Amino acid sequence: MSSTFSDVLSCLDTFYVENALNFFVPSLKKDVKFKPLSIDQQRRFIDLRHQYSDLAMAEFSEVYDVIIKESCIDSVEIDDFTSLDRVVIALQHRAEIDDDLVLVLDDDEGVTVPVKVSDYVQNVKNAKIELPKRPLKHKNIKIHVGLPTLSRDNATNRFAKEIIEYDPDDTQVEIQAKIDKNQGDMVLLTFIKYIDKIEVGELELTSKDSNPGQMLTIIRKLPGAFLKRLLTQMLKFRDTETNPLTMSHKIDKVDRDVTLQVNSVLFTGA
Asked: Which label site among 11, 94, 115, 123 has the fewest CB atoms less than 10 Å from its CB?
């Protein structure tokens, strides 16, 4: 019996629903149903031009966050997922495609280590994620911080591109030069990703009720006493995001910590 083009497409749509995967989402502390990745979705990672520039993670996030929305079956607020949720979901998508991965160590030319992606997923599930309960405070000013949501992260990344006057035809060298020229604002924009709310006396400004440009103006206006504390807190958050992705592996009979980088290369092998 011959099938029509539309029949085959419809059957494939049904396949993805019937073969849905249960992925753990740290911020929800539960599993959520996702469709497996398609070849077309993986192709989008290959299309990323600047895989090794400082914008690599921003470009990966922009592409993968769309894929998260396309593939999520359950009714959840995806824009409120955190940056940690993103990398954990990505690992689970990768493990479903192929659990075996060979990592190339940055600090040792030619040294590789084979890993199981699912081991890193389990490591995240077992990790105790501790987030600050108290705001940063100076006199009558309070800064409430937390892991970036996907919406806040992407909005800040888009604004960063505006600041550096990003051109998709730029070479990686040209992009890096633009980033270096605006390094101060790039650091402040990184702070913004981790800020939920700023209180000044009885007034407050939340990240949801403002855009990155407005928040950057406020950050520039804050007392200098906050700078070091914001930097320290940001580094703690970075540890929160990367520590669960770090595992010990035996390399040349020596135990070494290896961090799994989650970016487009995870899906392309490039």
From this structure: 11
| Domain annotation covers residue 126 | no
Q: How many CB atoms lie within 10 A of CB 26?
A: 19
| Spatial CB neighbours of 266, under 8 Å, sequence gap ≥ 6 | 90, 91, 94, 101, 260
Residue 269 one-letter amino acid: G
C-alpha distances (whole Å) from 132 to each of 112, 194, 219, 248, 269 are 36, 11, 20, 27, 36
Residue with tokens 């939340």: 206
Q: Give the pair of three-digit tokens for residue 127.
A: 């990790």
Contact 115, 101 (CB under 8 A): yes
Cα–Cα distance for residue pair 135/143, rounded to 1 Å: 5
Residue whose tokens read 């910590």: 257
144 Cβ contact list (under 8 Å, min separation 6): 135, 195, 196, 197, 198, 199
Listed residue (184, 196, 185, 186) closest to 233, CA to CA = 196
Q: Domain containing 197: what range?
A: 136-242
Phi/psi-derived region of residue 165, left when phi > 0, alpha when psi is between -120 and 50, beta in every other case:
left
pLDDT at residue 106, as a whole number = 65
Strand order in the sheet with 136-138: 136-138, 141-145, 195-200, 203-206
Mean pLDDT of the 81-106 span: 91
| Backbone phi and psi for residue 94, each to the nearest 5 degrees, phi listed first | -65, -40
On whether residue 158 sits in a domain, the answer given is yes
Dump pLDDT digits (tens) for 13-38: 999 999 999 999 999 999 999 999 99
Tell whether 212 is covered by a domain: yes
Distances (CA, A) of 109 to 33, 52, 62, 106, 251: 40, 17, 31, 7, 14
Q: Domains in the chain: how many in total? A: 1
